[in-house]
Design goal:
Helix content: 25-40%
Largest sheet: 5 strands, parallel
Radius of gyration: 18 Å
Strand order of the largest sheet: 1-2-3-7-6
Number of strands: 7
Order of helices and strands: HHEHHEHEEEHHEHEH
Distance between the termini: 29 Å
Number of helices: 9
Shape: globular
Structural class: alpha/beta
Strand content: 5-15%
Length: 281
């Protein structure tokens, strides 16, 4: 049974981590990080099967790939709270010689990171490859991935989507952060994505939608459903309709905070809106 309050407490603390990390170095991407917080908390603390420790192979456990790597603040915070490394290391975000770079990298050997994601649009190809590898290894665990909607403007994604369908990669659950925003403005104005549901279905993927991607109960429900549909011949796509900047009122509903750090006054205002539930790092 899902412990909703526990997950909400973790999410609130992760959001505090995000704004503090980005403020401390005056660099980073708080908007998308805040929007994806509930999903990543639900994934790591409820939906995924995880082993003790970390190894790059992911054998005998579910694997996750972050493709939209600019939302590294939420990824690092979730990994730290999940026990992959000490939460105190969050204070080094984007600092010189830190393992917590602006986009996750593999050469830093940070536990929990399986792919460098400095260039967008590549994560789905890697996730598909790992899912195929699990099938070859007779590993029945799943592969999860997360992508930005604007990231789907890059063509390599559609090659991977076509490959997954052709090869019936049915142990893969790819989630799209469907917030309608990217660094230059609304996706509808920069380069419209059209009807993503119809597009994925045209490639013979099973598509599930979350109308409120910042509602923990809705997220858990769709993750349960997605897992129940694996192994049936289709890759799964979750269209997660989130709000960029969720939890901090002045960051919501705009692309302005895609890659912008709050000043001291703005940080204080954000922290007033985010409950400290597990203790600040």
């Amino acid at each position: 049974m899902h412990d909703i309050q526990k997950l909400k407490n973790i999410a609130s603390q992760v959001r505090r981590d995000i704004v503090r990390m980005v403020h401390a170095c005056q660099s980073g991407h708080p908007g998308g990080s805040l929007g994806c917080t509930d999903f990543l908390v639900a994934l790591y603390f409820d939906a995924m099967k995880r082993k003790e420790g970390f190894d790059m192979t992911g054998k005998g456990e579910d694997a996750f790939y972050l493709s939209n790597g600019h939302i590294s603040p939420v990824f690092y915070s979730v990994l730290a709270h999940a026990g992959y490394f000490d939460k105190a290391e969050l204070a080094t975000f984007r600092k010189l010689n830190s393992r917590l770079q602006g986009h996750p990298t593999t050469h830093e050997h940070l536990p929990g990171v399986r792919i460098a994601s400095g260039s967008l649009g590549q994560g789905l190809s890697v996730a598909v490859g790992h899912a195929v590898g699990k099938k070859l290894d007779k590993d029945t665990n799943l592969v999860f991935s997360l992508h930005g909607d604007g990231e789907l403007q890059e063509g390599q994604n559609w090659e991977a989507i076509m490959y997954a369908s052709h090869n019936r990669v049915d142990n893969l659950i790819a989630t799209i952060d469907y917030n309608g925003q990217q660094i230059d403005g609304p996706t509808s104005k920069v380069l419209s994505l059209g009807n993503l549901k119809t597009k994925f279905e045209a490639f013979d993927w099973k598509v599930l939608e979350v109308e409120n991607g910042n509602d923990m109960e809705e997220i858990l429900k769709v993750l349960d459903e997605a897992k129940s549909l694996t192994g049936k011949g289709q890759s799964i796509c979750i269209l997660l309709k989130t709000e960029m900047g969720y939890g901090v009122d002045y960051m919501m509903g705009t692309h302005a905070w895609h890659g912008k750090a709050p000043n001291d006054e703005q940080l204080a205002k954000a922290l007033d809106q985010l409950e400290e539930t597990l203790g600040d790092y």
